[in-house]
Specification:
The complex is a heterodimer of chains A (520) and B (453).
Chain A: H1 8-18, H2 32-39, H3 46-64, H4 88-98, H5 106-115, H6 125-134, H7 139-154, H8 177-190, H9 192-202, H10 208-216, H11 227-233, H12 239-251, H13 260-267, E1 268-271, E2 276-279, H14 287-291, H15 306-317, H16 322-328, H17 332-340, H18 345-358, H19 362-375, H20 390-396, H21 399-411, H22 420-427, H23 435-451, H24 457-469, H25 478-487, H26 495-514
Antiparallel strand pairs in A: 1-2
Chain B: H1 7-11, H2 17-25, E1 32-38, E2 41-46, E3 54-59, E4 64-67, H3 77-88, H4 100-125, H5 130-161, H6 171-183, H7 187-199, H8 206-225, H9 232-242, H10 248-252, E5 256-271, E6 274-283, E7 289-297, E8 311-318, E9 327-332, H11 345-352, H12 357-370, E10 377-389, E11 392-397, E12 402-404, H13 411-421, E13 426-432, E14 437-444, E15 447-450
Antiparallel strand pairs in B: 1-2, 2-3, 3-4, 5-6, 5-8, 6-7, 8-9, 10-11, 10-13, 11-12, 13-14, 14-15
Helix pairs in contact in B: 2-3, 5-6, 5-8, 6-7, 7-8
The chains are: A mainly alpha (520), B alpha+beta (453).
């Protein structure tokens, strides 16, 4: 029979599969102890002989099993010279966050750990690296707390290659897009010119989306030295690349794009009588402007300003704001006021806002936002450019101005705490509130909570926002918040939401202590 | 005081993941109104949702927990939170006289311990009627023998018809014979038959693995049929396999081994509503491994608190076996000592297996030759490096010898192992089943990491 082989197990296994009623079981003679042992089975009924032989041979194999030998891979082990690990307390906070308890606090933990120059303990590295794989926006914050060990580990798993440090330029061409972006960003902050040359060397072979992303990195360390390269970007095949290039050029105080001013002045002027702004919409878009990256068609489908309005808006956005204050001898506040009552107010205000944002002019930016505070109630502002969304504008303000503006929101514009706009602005903060702002919010909140008997729609909104507020209140105010809760009536509808707010705030407090100087 | 409690050790006590999570949430100073400590007892009051704060206390010598909260979990989240706080911020515990509610508990505990000791001596004094006992044994022998006869015929039928058709058979076939074995008072055989049914649909080499297990069952039957002719230790192993286990009182009459035992690894698994905890001990003076099995229903606590990475001074008695591993704690020094720091794992590893994987496997082979029924064998490996291959994770020693890690291990755990090693050698303790190693503990220098739960 072909099935019989030298290996006794094979013989037994094939016989067992087939069944002894089809084929009588016959063990081949084997020498040695095993053979002696098996030969004692020959007198037995065939089923019994088969099963016993199976038991004996498999046990014989198990006892005699030897582990495999492989060649030792000479992999470079991780260096022991590493950042200090965070405290066990801080590690527990991180573990809670990674297990989904307070996911919104991950970036705060990472930021604090990076400031403390501490690294994540080994046991938590895999989960953290996985988080970074799923959520790109976290990556930049994850890198500084990985330590040598984390980067070493990431290099072993292709899923985590975003975290593999590009330590030398030699890897520039072969790295993954995200690792390359991080490297480019880092290089821009130290050696912006060198970063530009590096990108230039591979520019032609990059994909459109990578080109746009890499170009965005030029916001870091932007200078006139970048102008020729950016102008080159104006002729790019990709619309997205052109948009980034225009935006960056317009942010340069003396770029060639500033020649736009002479065009803009043709269409916008001041009439001293009134006084009022005179707007004449352009009837065509000048060829030189098209070469400078101006778009004929509005980029957004919400075409509320029309084609001609769009052309003027772009010109305004590329014109230094000092042009107007100097030429007309007026303050930004006065000019905005005129624009506000104008029939083309959308074009004017968005144009000024775009210029203010690009030129980093906080005074103008604040004025535009104030107009909108005073008037609009809806938070769904239609904008022609994503860059001009309210959130983007408020975010472009410096922290101090932003806090002051929000304080004015209550004190000057008399907005209530349960007003949609207020809630929206408070919850969309990208940084901590100042102590003054936080105290004001708490006062307003207490005032409001004590005077609401029935829930209005906006109260539901406020209630769901309370938990988010906890992310922005400085932890030093924790005890004040607890006192506020204690002053609330016991049957208040707000107790649970306040408790949630306090839970989160206390966790942040714990986190701050655990990652602070004496974090234990 | 020595404060080598680590958060990992504390969390190993949690009855489930939710408790661990909630306990962590309570491990902050702000949650506690009063915190105190006197020697090995810590206590605190935690403000919960109720009017009065919950009073939580821990006797660290065991450790034992008590809390005034209504939770049916044990230890509850308050106990875990308090314990974690001690592990992470020991400075927060103020050495002071215990308040009345703590003192009361301590007094009741020592009373209870005395009572239990009394009960135990009483139990041991009660000698069962030898004639009635012999009768019971003979009756069971008869039942088991009949069951075994039936199983032999059933097994013969399987190989007569051939194993190739097994995948087409319904589970009913296995269930019927397993139920028969339960009736015949041979639950161990029933368990093995049900496990066998599970193998059939697992991968290409199922028939080899089924045949292997059938062969083992057959050897068991053959052994049992001439059990009187075998040495007592072998008899004990056969009875254990059949599920005819000794009761604890009988075991405890055996020879006791006093030692400082290191809790070297632990693993809790849920089987239906029963939680089974396997705790491996290593005797520091006697150089022996011991396995403690504990069972608990639902959220009920395990009777013994055993924290991986700590030591306990205890008298152990092994279940009789040709290769004794399973044991019971006869007496345990309760209040005498706080957990002592274990000696360096290197020293222990040195004593257990002087070098790498091949020596460890040689020990396993010898053990298997003594007791072919060993399912999980304790392996302590020193200087091994984790590696990932296409099929799964491996440990490799300095000589290049590899052992595959359990395929059931979660992916994250493999990466955690690699993260801990950083490409350098580490020490690992785990359970070897003849084909795969399940990692339970890892040491990096003197730090212990639990992988079992």
């Amino acid at each position: 029979m072909a099935l019989a082989t030298d290996d006794p197990w094979q013989t037994i296994a094939s016989a067992a599969l087939l069944g002894t009623e089809r084929q009588p079981f016959q063990l081949a003679n084997i020498s040695g102890n095993l053979g002696n042992c098996l030969s004692q089975l020959s007198a037995r009924p065939k089923e019994s002989a088969l099963l016993s032989a199976a038991g004996i041979v498999s046990l014989h194999q198990r006892v005699g099993w030897l582990p495999e030998v492989r060649s030792v891979i000479e992999a470079e082990p991780c260096s022991f010279d590493d950042l200090p690990q965070c405290s066990p307390r801080a590690a527990r906070c991180l573990q809670q966050i990674l297990e989904g308890q307070f996911p919104q606090l991950l970036s705060e933990w990472l930021e604090k750990a990076a400031i403390a120059r501490q690294r994540v303990p080994e046991m938590l590295l895999p989960s953290l690296l996985d988080k970074g794989r799923q959520q790109r926006e976290l990556r930049a914050a994850i890198l500084p707390v990985l330590g040598q060990r984390g980067r070493w580990l990431a290099a072993q798993n292709p899923d985590w290659n975003y975290a593999v440090a590009l330590t030398t330029e030699a890897d520039w061409e072969t790295g993954t897009p995200s690792a390359r972006l991080l490297y480019l960003q880092d290089l821009r902050s130290h050696h912006p010119d060198h970063a530009r040359e590096l990108l230039q060397s591979t520019w032609k072979q990059e994909t459109a989306s990578d080109r746009a992303k890499f170009l965005e990195a030029f916001r870091i360390g932007l200078s006139m030295a970048d102008e020729p390269f950016l102008e080159n970007g104006l002729g790019d095949r990709s619309k997205e690349v052109r948009r980034v290039a225009v935006d960056l050029l317009a942010s340069l105080p003396t770029s060639r794009l500033q020649h736009v001013t002479e065009h803009t002045c043709r269409y916008l002027s001041l009439e001293r009588e009134g006084p009022s702004l005179h707007v004449q919409l352009p009837d065509h878009l000048d060829e030189t402007l098209i070469q400078l990256g101006f778009e004929l068609k509005p980029l957004s489908s919400i075409n509320k300003v029309g084609e001609k309005g769009w052309w003027l808006l772009q010109m305004l956005g590329a014109t230094p704001l000092s042009t107007w204050t100097e030429q007309w001898q007026m303050s930004p506040q006065q000019i905005i006021k005129l624009a506000q009552s104008h029939e083309w107010q959308n074009v004017l205000l968005d144009g000024f806002a775009l210029a203010a944002k690009r030129q980093g002019n906080h005074e103008w930016l604040e004025e535009v936002i104030r107009v909108w505070f005073a008037g609009q109630t809806s938070i769904n502002r239609d904008v022609v450019l994503v860059d001009l969304g309210t959130e983007a504008l408020v975010d472009a303000l410096s922290g101090d101005r932003r806090n002051a503006l929000l304080i004015d929101l209550f004190q000057i514009f008399h907005r209530r705490i349960n007003d949609s706009l207020t809630i929206w602005l408070l919850r969309s903060s990208s940084q901590l509130w100042s102590v003054d702002l936080a105290r004001l919010v708490l006062d307003e909140l207490e005032e409001h909570l004590n005077h609401t008997k029935d829930f209005s729609n906006s109260d539901w909104e406020l209630r769901s926002a309370l938990k988010e507020f906890a992310r922005f209140i400085p932890v030093s105010l924790t005890s004040e918040v607890i006192q506020l809760r204690e002053r609330l009536a016991n049957d208040s509808h707000w107790i649970n939401s306040m408790n949630d707010l306090i839970t989160l705030l206390e966790f942040r407090n714990e986190m701050a202590q655990a990652l602070g100087k004496d974090g234990g | 005081m020595p404060a080598q409690w680590t958060a990992d050790q504390v969390l190993a006590l949690a009855p489930d993941a939710a408790s661990a999570k909630n306990g962590r949430g309570l491990a902050t100073r702000q949650k506690w109104i009063a915190l105190g400590q006197q020697q090995s007892v810590i206590w605190g009051e935690c403000q919960g949702s109720g009017k009065n704060p919950y009073q939580t206390q821990i006797d660290l010598s065991e450790p034992a927990f008590r809390c005034s909260c209504p939770s049916r979990k044990f230890p509850c989240k308050h106990g875990l939170g308090l314990f974690l706080l001690l592990a992470e911020q020991p400075g927060e515990m103020v050495e002071t006289d215990p308040p009345a509610w703590v003192a009361e508990w301590l007094a009741s505990r020592s009373q209870r311990a005395e009572k239990q000791a009394e009960k135990q001596t009483k139990r041991q004094d009660q000698t069962a009627d030898p004639i009635a006992q012999a009768k019971r044994v003979a009756e069971r022998q008869r039942k088991v023998s009949a069951g075994i006869q039936e199983l032999r015929l059933w097994l013969d039928d399987r190989v007569r018809q051939g194993l190739a058709t097994l995948p087409q058979e319904s589970y009913q076939m296995w269930d019927t014979i397993a139920a028969r074995m339960v009736d015949a008072q041979a639950p161990g055989l029933a368990r093995q038959l049900r496990e066998l049914a599970g193998i059939i649909h697992t991968g290409a080499d199922w028939s080899d693995r089924v045949l292997e297990r059938l062969g083992r069952l057959y050897l068991l039957i053959e052994g049992f049929e001439r059990i009187e002719t075998l040495p007592t230790a072998v008899q004990a192993d056969l009875r254990t396999q059949i599920g005819w286990s000794l009761n604890q009182e009988e075991v405890l009459t055996g020879q006791a081994h006093t030692d400082l035992w290191l809790v070297i690894g632990q693993r809790t698994q849920e089987e239906e509503r029963l939680r089974v905890r396997r705790t491996w001990l290593y005797g520091i003076a006697t150089h022996t491994f011991a396995l403690l099995l504990d069972f608990a229903h639902g959220h009920q606590p395990f009777e013994q608190s055993l924290l991986p990475g700590t030591c306990l001074e205890a008298e152990l008695v092994f279940y009789p076996s040709a290769y004794p591993l399973r044991a019971l704690i006869k007496t345990r020094q309760e209040s005498a000592v706080l957990p002592k720091p274990p000696p360096g794992i290197e020293l222990i590893a040195e004593a257990v297996c002087p070098s790498g994987i091949s020596e460890a496997i040689a020990t396993y082979s010898k053990a298997l030759a003594n007791c072919p029924w060993l399912e999980r064998f304790p392996l302590l490996l020193q200087d091994v490096i984790p590696r990932q291959e296409e099929k799964g994770w491996l440990l490799q020693d300095q000589q290049g010898i590899v052992l595959p890690l359990s395929r059931r291990m979660e992916a994250t755990q493999g990466w955690q192992l690699l993260a801990l090693s950083g490409g350098h050698a580490l020490s690992v303790f785990g359970e070897w089943d003849g084909a795969f190693l399940t990692v339970l503990s890892v040491w990096v220098e003197d730090s212990y990491y639990g992988f079992g739960n």
